[in-house]
Model the fold of this input.
Amino acid sequence: MSLPFILFFAFAVIAVAGALLLILAREPIHSALSLVLVMISLAALYLLLGAEFIAAVQIIVYAGAVMVLFVFVIMLLNAGMEERTNWSSIAKYAGVPLGVFLLLELAHWMARAGPGVGIANGAARAANTAVSTRALSALLFQKYLFPFEATSILILIAVLGALVLAKRDE
Amino acid sequence: MSVVPISYYLVLSVILFGMGAVAVVFKRNIITIFMAIELMLNAVNLAFVAFARAWNQLDGLVFVFFVIVVAAAEAAVGLAIVITIVQNRQTLNVERVNLLKL
Done:
């Protein structure tokens, strides 16, 4: 087994374990910390796929800014143990098998989406991954310039919306 | 050097997405549900990056960038909504937030 495979399986196992912890943890702060684990291992997988810029943005924006916001709100609201509510029997006996079925079906079709493509192109790409950030910035500021500018307006609206919503009424 | 096939990444992405969907349905804490949505967005991002690599197109990475930006905006607005809900109803349990329920 070569190094990329070992790294992939290591980080994949960490990501899935983090997602499991997110579901099983009763305290919201534990869920938040396990989500940070998932995001960091996904950043490592992005590096493995040769997307350095996206890996850096993942760490800075997701694992950094967004999750700090989550943890901040959890502490602000003093969110404690999750209340257990009694599930209806439909949720218990139909929901869980249907969830597993959805997962298996999605996995089946996604695995067939590009069989063997990675092996064909991956070896050629592995040599020149360092170029990708430069090419990505050229793409972002030329072909996708208008959507890029539109996202800045989106961020502005989000800031205004958060301010309006979180402000206490007089 | 052999390279991990793209389908492995896609299956991992599907597993994470499915777990996020299950968490959205089963969790009762509104903040945890929000985090599960972020998990699903992350899973989609992984699929985007994997496909971008498989087809040697960088456009997929640009879309991941946009998804991250939109997710950050969504988290800011969503958590403000959570704070407003807690101020008005003094609970984080989504089953207690049933004003629009018949």
